[in-house]
Amino acid sequence: MKTFMANNQTVTHDWYVVDAKGLTLGRLSTQVASLLRGKHKPTYTPHVNCGDNVIVINADKVKLTGNKWEDKLYRRHSEYSGGLKTVNAETLMANQPTKMVEHAVYGMLPHTKLGNQMRKQLYVYAGENHPHQAQQPKEFKVVE
């Protein structure tokens, strides 16, 4: 019996909706990253994009434990001297509610060209509504 190896012709990409309301950021992100990679499928192949499209709604209602709202810092650098910008989680959530979920999931994906393909399959929205009803996404329950 030969080992099955998925390729672009044999892979199908399903659509899933994940409701982030009241879920912890890290636990949500690990399961979303697993869906994007395709690790839940029996045909998972590490070097092929066999993951699914994931829609995360209610990203503004995600929760953090402990003092992370004040202590957790998000940094970026402009590549100029003195160009380090730092913002805490509370401010980031107030200004850009989807960025926190995107940042957490992106950090769990491969940092390669394959990971960039997987990134494009993630759609994060702050509210309940999303424009992907035509794809008939299935509900995915995150285990807390």
Radius of gyration of CA atoms, rounded to a whole number: 17 Å
Distance between the termini: 38 Å
Helix content: 25-40%
Q: Quick one: biggest sheet?
A: 4 strands, parallel
Sheet-strand content, in percent, reads 15-25%
Q: Round the mean pLDDT to the nearest integer and report it.
A: 96
Name the strands of the widest sheet in spatial order.
5-2-1-6
Q: What is the 3D form?
A: globular
Number of helices: 5
Low-confidence stretches: none
List the secondary-structure elements in sequence, H or E. Answer: EHEHEEHHHEE
Number of strands: 6
Structural class assignment? alpha/beta
Commentary on this structure:
The protein has 144 residues and is of the alpha/beta class. The chain has 5 helices and 6 strands, in the order βαβαββαααββ. The protein has helices at residues 25-37, 68-71, 89-95, 99-106, 113-119, and strands at 15-19, 53-57, 73-77, 84-88, 122-124, 138-139. The strands form 2 sheets. It has a 4-stranded parallel β-sheet with strand order 5-2-1-6, with helices on one face. Strands 3-4 form a two-stranded antiparallel sheet. A hairpin with a 6-residue loop joins strand 3 (73-77) and strand 4 (84-88). Helix 1 packs across helix 4 (99-106). The longest helix is centred in the N-terminal third of the chain and has 13 residues, at 25-37. The chain is globular and about 55 Å long. The model has no long low-confidence stretch (mean pLDDT 96).
